[in-house]
Amino acid sequence: MVSLLLLILLLVLGFAQLNARVAQYRAAREATSSVQALALAEAGLEDARVKLDRDADFPPRGAVDQLVFSYQEDVFDLDNATRVGSYVVTVDLRWRAPPASIVRITSEGQAGPPGAPTGRRRLTMEVDVAEFRAGAPNPDLFRVLHLEDEGGF
Amino acid sequence: MKRGVTLAEVLLTMFLFILMLGVAGTLVREYSGVLRHSSSKERTLRSALVGLDRIDCELAQAHAVVSPATSTPVSLLEFRKLDPGAARLPAPPTPVPAGWAPHDPAYEVTVRYRVLQGTLIREVVGGGAPMAVVQGPQGLNAVLLPNGNVEVSLSIQEDKLLRTLSTEVFLPSLR
Residue B146 to residues A34, B60, B79, B140, B162: CA-CA distances in angstroms? Predict the structure, then answer.
């Protein structure tokens, strides 16, 4: 009887301690997802920037007056089989013409399974696409003018 | 015929029960103390990591780094970045003004990070009261690396040890 009572007491205390740990484990998992989402968003930005630099036909225009273009790509682990997450990139050409001559790229990284991401992060970048500025060749052509972190959600 | 318990047996049982309860209580109290101590250390470490992450995210948006200016470590991090609230580009179909320049100081703000009395403070120069980011860090160090990146370190007190956490920030839009 005594040992039973003692066992029950220890069981209750043990469960209380375990419950306290659950919140910590959840926070650790969310921190990992957040970091993954940031890395995916950065990958999306760099993917779009390099395509802009190397491919004269990027982004492909569905219509002459199409100024906003979006695409999504999945990202896999080094084994090329395990899906890590994805990024959704939006390329905004509304300010491509002079005098602004910039392209705004937004990349949203989504960590976790499709349809139920465990973490999301959005970054926005402006890329300089002016061949000339102030009458001289632009040394910052296809370089990042501005980067904005819109945070995780 | 059922045999009952004697007074001596009851007293002995109660004594043993109280003894085992005492031992269990001592163990639980010590375990709680260790858990509380490690939770407090973990909290300090986590707040330093949150502070570093915050600095990392914001510093990556910098157009110019005012402090540190050299490879000598300094305790004040100051940089200029685009004001996120500035209406820099007009929404189409409003045309962009002819004299528009991508780097206009009128649309930039100066941000400072420093540690004051155990608190990481963020302040926008000319933009209101300083804001406490996290409690816990004892010091901040920032140094400009030869590759153009900035290394930021926060130091925290762990019992008798001073632990330093660092991050190297790449600045893609640095001019």
Answer: 30, 17, 17, 20, 27
What single letter denotes the amino acid at residue B107?
Answer: Y
Which of A45, A42, A123, A114 has its CA nearest to residue A85? Answer: A114
For residues B110 and B83, the answer to whether their CB atoms sit within 8 Å is: no
From A20, A133, A147, residue closest to B173, measured CB to CB: A147
Q: B45-84: per-residue pLDDT in tens?
A: 888 888 999 999 999 999 899 999 988 999 999 999 988 8
| Triad A72, A75, A76: Cα angle to 5° | 150
CA B116 centroid distance within chain: 14
Strand order across the A119-128 sheet: A68-76, A83-92, A102-111, A119-128, A144-152
Residue A33 contacts residue A100 (beta carbons within 8 Å): no
ipTM score assigned to the predicted complex = 0.74
Q: Which residue of B has its CA nearest to A13?
A: B28
* Direct distance between the N- and C-terminal alpha carbons of chain B, in angstroms, rounded to an integer: 99
d(CA A61, CA A16): 59
A28: buried, middle or exposed (CB in 10 Å: 19+, 13-18, 0-12)? exposed
CB B59 within 8 Å of CB B76: no
Task: Reduce the DSSP state of residue B148 to 3 states and report it.
Answer: coil
Of A6, A95, A128, the CB nearest to B24: A6
CA distances (Å), origin A8, targets A14, A107, A152, B20: 10, 53, 43, 13
Say if the Cβ atoms of B60 and A102 lie within 8 Å. no
Partner B contacted by A2 (CB < 8 A): yes
Q: Alpha helix locations (H) across chain B?
A: 7-59
Using DSSP's 3-state secondary structure scheme, residue B144 falls into strand
**Separation between Cα atoms, residue B79 and residue A103, nearest integer Å:** 24
| A54-83: pLDDT as tens digits | 888 887 777 667 888 999 999 998 998 899
Q: For chain A, give the longest Cα–Cα distance.
A: 93
